[in-house]
Amino acid sequence: MFVRREGEEKIRIVYSSLDAVKMAKQNPKKRIIFLAIGFETTAPSTAIAVINAFNEKLNNFFVFSAHKIMPPAMKALVDDGVKINGYIGPVMLVLLPVQLFSTIFLKNMVYPL
Hints:
about 35% helix
């Protein structure tokens, strides 16, 4: 995929997905595309932005979702035969029940606090 910048102020960095919704509301004749990048914990805020844009009937707000989830990547390490004793995981994976994690990956996990 190629991104081409045409003139000034075509690409903006925003702090949150709701800032992109605000931009869409303020610029109804421009297409606002929010590049949603992140892990499990950022997907809900993107969903809230989509709901808000829908409720406000903004037909110029779009999302390009590039969210990732950690368990498949962690499973790939085990499936490829990498010899590890456990994982040091991001705190966001605390949401994944430890028993389920241990059952799926047969590895221990620690979470830095």
